[in-house]
C-alpha cells in the first residue's frame, strides 16, 4: 500500500539505508525517525526502503502532515484490508475506523508490517498519547513504524531512534544529477566542474538537483543547447520556460500553489475552469509537463497529485503581489465552486476537498469565503461534533480566535442548557456586539450569534425582540447561504413560531411560502426520498403545527415518516423524530390511541439506543405520559411523570425549565387524581421558580398561575382563585 511508484533514478544514501535496515532488524526497537530538512530526501529514502522490503513485509504508507490526511489514509487501509464495520453515526464510524485500524496493526491478522508516516512534522499531533495522531498509532512490539520528519521533537516524543538525513555529498549530488539526465558516460573535466558548482549552488538538496536536471533534460531534447549554470541555477528559470512552452501548465501550477500541497484531486484541477482544462488531451499534456519537471508527483494511479513544499514556497516568492492576490482569489473561487453543500451522499467529496478549503480560507475574506466557511462547518459538525467553526479555525492555525470562539460557544450553551436565559442573553449580546465590530453583521459567526440570541429571547417570552433578531438572522442567512440552506429553513420555522405567539397568523402563514417553494424545488431536483427533501418536508410540517394547521401538518409528517423508515430504517434518530412529530399531531387532533402507539414506539427505541437519561428519551417519556393523561389513565401518567421529574432533577437541577415542565405536568395529573394538596404544592413550587427564572409575564408562568387558580378554586378558596385568574 504505497501510493508512489519506485524512483528508478534513486542513487546514493546507502549508509542511511544500511542504518535503517540494521535498526529495523534490531530486537525491541520498532520506532525509527528519518529526520532532516525539507527537500533533503527523507521521503525518497523511505520510498526506496519500502520497495526493497515489500516482498518480505507488508508496507503501509500514511500521510501524517495533518490529522485529516492521516484519517483519510487510515480509512483507505480499513477499506482495502476490510477491517471496520460502519457504526450508526458518522462521528462514531470515524472514531471506530481509526481505533479498529490501530487494533488491527496490533493483532495477528496484520502480519509482519512496516508503517511509514510521511511528513510527521506537526508537534501538536504528537505531543502526547492523547494527541490526534499519536493516540491511533499501534503500540507494543509488533511491527515497525518509520517516520519522516523535520521535527526532532516529534521523533523524541514518539520514542524513535533517530537517523539524521543530511544533504547529499558532492559525489552523491553529482551522481544524482547525471542519473536524472540519463548520462552514464564520464563527463568531461569542465562539465564535471560545472556539475559540482551546480550541486553546491543548489545547496546539495536532492529536490533542487532533480528539478534542475529535469529542466536541463528538456532543454537538451528541445534545443540541444549547451548546459550553463545560469539556466540550471534556479527554479524561476524552470518556471519561465514552462510559461513559454505550456501556458496551461503554468496556470495549473499557479493555482495549486495556493491549495494544500498534498492530495490534490485531479477532478479539482480538471473542473477548475482554467482555460483549456476541459480538453482532456491538452490537460494531460499540461500535467505531463509538470510531472516531467518534477514539480508535481502523481499518487494513487493518477487520481491525486502532490506539490513539493519547496516548489510551493518558490511559487509564492516567484509571483508578484498582484499575481499572488489574483491566484489566491482564483483558488478560493475554484474550491468554493466545487466544495458541495454537505450531505451524507457527498461526504467523500467533502473529505477530499476539506484540506484545500481550510487552506484557501486561511488568509482570505469576503462573501464567498463566508459561504465556504459555513459549508465546511456543516461538514465538520456532522463528522466531528459541535465544535464546528472552532475546529475550522484550529485547522487554520488561528488558535487564539478558536479558543475565544469555543469558550463563548460552550459558556452560552451551558447557560442556555441550565435555563439561565437572562445570563445567556447578556453573553450573546456581548458576543454579537464584538463580532459586529471585528467581523461584519453578515458574517456567519455574527448571524449564528444573532440566531442564538433570538432563541434565548423566545425562551424568555420576549417575542417582539425575538422576532427582530430572527428577521435579522434570516435576512443574513438568505444572502450568505441561500433560501434552501437548512440553517435558513430552520430560522424560517422559528420566526413563524414567534409570529404565531404574537398572534400574527397571516404574517406567519407568509413565512411558509419559502418553505413550500424550497420543498417543491427539492422534490423536482433531488427526488422525494433525498435527505434534504425530507428535512424540508419536516421543517414545513413543524411550522404548520405551530400555526395549528394540524391536518396538513399530519399528512406531511406521515409522508416524512414513511420515507425515512424506507431510506434510513425504523430506529434511525431522524426516523424517531418523525415518529415523535406525528404522535404530537395525533394528540392535537384528539387521536389519543394513535398518539399513544407512536409514542410507545419512539420511547422504547430511544430508551434502548440512547439510554433512559438522554434528552430525546425524556421527551418521549413526557409525551407518552401526556397520552395516558389524555386517555384518562392518570395513574400510569403519574408514574411516568414522576420518573421524568426525578431524572430531570438529578441531571438538570430543580430550577431548569425542563424540570419545571415535568413538575407542572405532574401537578395537573395529581389534580385529576383528586389530590389537590399535593397538586397545589407542586404548582406553587413551579410558579415561584418560573417567576424568578422567566418573569411574571412569561406564558409558561401564566399557565402555572392559571392551573394553581383552578386547584385552589376547587377546594373552595374562590377569592384566591379569582385574584390569580385576574393576574393570569
TrEMBL record:
Residues 246-322 form the DUF7779 domain. One of its GO terms (molecular function) is ADP binding. Residues 17-176 form the NB-ARC domain. SUPFAM superfamilies: P-loop containing nucleoside triphosphate hydrolases, TPR-like. This is Uncharacterized protein. The lineage of its organism: Eukaryota, Fungi, Dikarya, Ascomycota, Pezizomycotina.
Amino acid at each position: 500500500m504505497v501510493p508512489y511508484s519506485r524512483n528508478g533514478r534513486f542513487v546514493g544514501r546507502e549508509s542511511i539505508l544500511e542504518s535503517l535496515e540494521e535498526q529495523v532488524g534490531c530486537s525491541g526497537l520498532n520506532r525509527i525517525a528519518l529526520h532532516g530538512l525539507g527537500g533533503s530526501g527523507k521521503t525518497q529514502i523511505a520510498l526506496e526502503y519500502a520497495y526493497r522490503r515489500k516482498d518480505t513485509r507488508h508496507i503501509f504508507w500514511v500521510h501524517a502532515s495533518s490529522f485529516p490526511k492521516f484519517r483519510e489514509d487510515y480509512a483507505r487501509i480499513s477499506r482495502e484490508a476490510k477491517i471496520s464495520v460502519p457504526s450508526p453515526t458518522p462521528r462514531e464510524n470515524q472514531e471506530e475506523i481509526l481505533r479498529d485500524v490501530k487494533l488491527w496493526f496490533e493483532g495477528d491478522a496484520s502480519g509482519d508490517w512496516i508503517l511509514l508516516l510521511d511528513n510527521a512534522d506537526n508537534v501538536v499531533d504528537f505531543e502526547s498519547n492523547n494527541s490526534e495522531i499519536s493516540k491511533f498509532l499501534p503500540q507494543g512490539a509488533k511491527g515497525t513504524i518509520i517516520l519522516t520528519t523535520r521535527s526532532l521533537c516529534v521523533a523524541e516524543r514518539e520514542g524513535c531512534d533517530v537517523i539524521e538525513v543530511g544533504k547529499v555529498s558532492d559525489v552523491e549530488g553529482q551522481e544524482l544529477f547525471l542519473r536524472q539526465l540519463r548520462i552514464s558516460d564520464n563527463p568531461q573535466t569542465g562539465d564535471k566542474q560545472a556539475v559540482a558548482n551546480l550541486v553546491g549552488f543548489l545547496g546539495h538538496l536532492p529536490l533542487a538537483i532533480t528539478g534542475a536536471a529535469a529542466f536541463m533534460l528538456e532543454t537538451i531534447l528541445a534545443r540541444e543547447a549547451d548546459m550553463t549554470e545560469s539556466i540550471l541555477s534556479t527554479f524561476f528559470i524552470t518556471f519561465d520556460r514552462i510559461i513559454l512552452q505550456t501556458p496551461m501548465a503554468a496556470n495549473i501550477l499557479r493555482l495549486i500553489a495556493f491549495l494544500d500541497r498534498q492530495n490534490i484531486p485531479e477532478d479539482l484541477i480538471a473542473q477548475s475552469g482554467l482555460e483549456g482544462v476541459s480538453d482532456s488531451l491538452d490537460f494531460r499534456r499540461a500535467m505531463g509537463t509538470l510531472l516531467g519537471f518534477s514539480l508535481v508527483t502523481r499518487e494513487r494511479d493518477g487520481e491525486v497529485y502532490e506539490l513539493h513544499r519547496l516548489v510551493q514556497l518558490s511559487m509564492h516568492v516567484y509571483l508578484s503581489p498582484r499575481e499572488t492576490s489574483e491566484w489566491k482569489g482564483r483558488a478560493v473561487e475554484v474550491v468554493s465552486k466545487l466544495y458541495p453543500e454537505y450531505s451524507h451522499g457527498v461526504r467523500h467529496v467533502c473529505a477530499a476537498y476539506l484540506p484545500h478549503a481550510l487552506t484557501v480560507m486561511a488568509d482570505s475574506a469576503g462573501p464567498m469565503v463566508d459561504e465556504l466557511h459555513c459549508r465546511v462547518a456543516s461538514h465538520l459538525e456532522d463528522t466531528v461534533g459541535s465544535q464546528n467553526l472552532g475546529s475550522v479555525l484550529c485547522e487554520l492555525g488561528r488558535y487564539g480566535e478558536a479558543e475565544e470562539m469555543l469558550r463563548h460557544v460552550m459558556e452560552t450553551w451551558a447557560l442556555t442548557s441550565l435555563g439561565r436565559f437572562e445570563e445567556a442573553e447578556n453573553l450573546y449580546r456581548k458576543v454579537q456586539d464584538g463580532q459586529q465590530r471585528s467581523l461584519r453583521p453578515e458574517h456567519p459567526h455574527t448571524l449564528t450569534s444573532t440566531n442564538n440570541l433570538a432563541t434565548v429571547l423566545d425562551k424568555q417570552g420576549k417575542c417582539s425582540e425575538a422576532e427582530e433578531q430572527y428577521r435579522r438572522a434570516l435576512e443574513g442567512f438568505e444572502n450568505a447561504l441561500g433560501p434552501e440552506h437548512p440553517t435558513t429553513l430552520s430560522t424560517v420555522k422559528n420566526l413563524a413560531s414567534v409570529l404565531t405567539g404574537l398572534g400574527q397568523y397571516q404574517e406567519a402563514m407568509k413565512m411558509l411560502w419559502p418553505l413550500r417553494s424550497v420543498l417543491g424545488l427539492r422534490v423536482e431536483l433531488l427526488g422525494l426520498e433525498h435527505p434534504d427533501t425530507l428535512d424540508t418536508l419536516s421543517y414545513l410540517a413543524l411550522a404548520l403545527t405551530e400555526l395549528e394547521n394540524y391536518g396538513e401538518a399530519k399528512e406531511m409528517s406521515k409522508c416524512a415518516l414513511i420515507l425515512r423508515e424506507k431510506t434510513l430504517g425504523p430506529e434511525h434518530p431522524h426516523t424517531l423524530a418523525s415518529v415523535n412529530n406525528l404522535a404530537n399531531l395525533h394528540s392535537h387532533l384528539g387521536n389519543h390511541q394513535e398518539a399513544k402507539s407512536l409514542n410507545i414506539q419512539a420511547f422504547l427505541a430511544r430508551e434502548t439506543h440512547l439510554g433512559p437519561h438522554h434528552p430525546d428519551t425524556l421527551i418521549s417519556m413526557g409525551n407518552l405520559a401526556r397520552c395516558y393523561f389524555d386517555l384518562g389513565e392518570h395513574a400510569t401518567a403519574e408514574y411516568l411523570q414522576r420518573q421524568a421529574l426525578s431524572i430531570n432533577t438529578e441531571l438538570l437541577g430543580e430550577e431548569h425549565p425542563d424540570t419545571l415542565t415535568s413538575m407542572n405536568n405532574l401537578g395537573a395529573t395529581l389534580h385529576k387524581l383528586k389530590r389537590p394538596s399535593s397538586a397545589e404544592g407542586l404548582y406553587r413550587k413551579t410558579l415561584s421558580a418560573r417567576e424568578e427564572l422567566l418573569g411574571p409575564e412569561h406564558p409558561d408562568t401564566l399557565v402555572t398561575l392559571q392551573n394553581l387558580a383552578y386547584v385552589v378554586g376547587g377546594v373552595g378558596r374562590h377569592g384566591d382563585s379569582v385574584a390569580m385568574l385576574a393576574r393570569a
